[in-house]
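Hi support team,

I've been running sequence recovery on a batch of backbones for a student project. Most finish fine, but this one hangs at about 90% for roughly twenty minutes before it completes. I'm not sure whether the input is malformed or the queue is just slow. I've pasted the structure tokens below so you can try to reproduce it. Let me know if you need the job ID as well.

Thanks,
M.K.
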């Protein structure tokens, strides 16, 4: 499996005013834009064709993964070769960034459908870039393996507090226990249910491995929650036709489309950063002593 769809057309209203003039995916987490973590995760899992479903205001994302001739030339002239190496390795040579536009904001399901001409007949992954996983996570690769084992679409889930279920897609696995890194059959999937109607507290965590049949289903999926064409509704239909599984996240997720989630990720990624981590944690210790 080589193709992954990353919808980046959303305007990031949850993160205003920061996102007024820059794409939310370009906000910096420690020293890299958020989208770079998501693309790195895809590449770690073996994906090479990164399909961005984008918007006219998001050109900075494509620029970030493109070659910048002037910058490279300047870094060579100034002998800043370590920096040059960092810039040159943002994207490995065998990876492709491909972009398509989502001309109207009709929802996540519609965004995935905009990539259909590039996906063709292949099975593919979808990654939502608001969700950042810890950099050691192998979850996406494990989802691909699980899909290849029995050809059941894999939906990443993790438990959330029951009172927050209204913010997410929620899956029903008939009350079974689901250990981290394991998959189990789903019987129902609902987008943003009211708390009293949520079939469980297992929320969809922004990573999907999908059978190609989802594209045909999306073409006839009516508008759902929020008046948008929901990927969750199409997966629910796919699941009823051919089965689909919930895969439980083993790593750790951060909702970086949300200011608090972003701050939490900043703290943890800074502490773990190979160069900045030791001095940052030392500084934190002195702050803790002062308070
Ligand atoms: C989307 C999905 C939802 C999922 C969530 C994860 O919702 O539709 O099923 O749980 O991402 O972040 P959004 O947050 O884009 O409204």
């Amino acid at each position: 499996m080589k193709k992954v769809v990353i919808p980046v057309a959303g305007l990031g209203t949850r993160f205003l005013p920061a996102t007024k003039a820059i794409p939310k995916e370009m906000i910096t987490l420690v020293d890299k834009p958020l989208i770079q973590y998501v693309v790195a995760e895809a590449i770690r899992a073996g994906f090479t064709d990164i399909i961005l479903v984008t918007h006219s205001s998001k050109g900075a994302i494509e620029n970030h993964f493109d070659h910048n001739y002037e910058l490279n030339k300047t870094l060579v002239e100034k002998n800043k070769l370590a920096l040059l190496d960092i810039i040159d390795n943002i994207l490995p040579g065998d990876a492709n960034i491909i972009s398509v536009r989502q001309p109207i904001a009709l929802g996540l399901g519609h965004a995935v459908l905009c990539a259909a001409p590039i996906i063709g007949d292949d099975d593919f992954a979808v990654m939502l870039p608001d969700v950042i996983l810890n950099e050691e996570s192998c979850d996406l690769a494990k989802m691909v393996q699980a899909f290849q084992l029995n050809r059941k679409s894999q939906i990443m889930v993790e438990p959330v507090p029951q009172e927050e279920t209204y913010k997410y897609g929620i899956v029903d696995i008939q009350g079974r226990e689901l250990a981290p890194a394991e998959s189990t059959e789903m019987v129902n999937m609902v987008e943003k249910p009211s708390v009293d109607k949520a079939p469980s507290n297992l929320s969809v965590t922004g990573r999907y491995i999908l059978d190609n049949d989802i594209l045909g289903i999306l073409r006839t999926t009516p508008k759902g929650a929020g008046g948008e064409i929901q990927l969750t509704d199409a997966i629910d239909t796919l699941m009823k036709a051919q089965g689909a599984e919930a895969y439980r996240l083993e790593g750790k997720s951060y909702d970086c489309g949300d200011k608090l989630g972003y701050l939490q990720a900043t703290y943890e990624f800074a502490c773990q950063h190979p160069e900045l981590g030791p001095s940052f944690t030392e500084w934190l210790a002195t702050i803790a002593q002062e308070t």
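--
Follow-up from support: It reproduced on our side and the slowdown came from queue contention, not your input. The pocket of 1-O-phosphono-alpha-D-glucopyranose is lined by residues 108, 128, 130-131, 168-169, 191, 203-204, 206, 232 (CB under 6 Å). No action needed from you.
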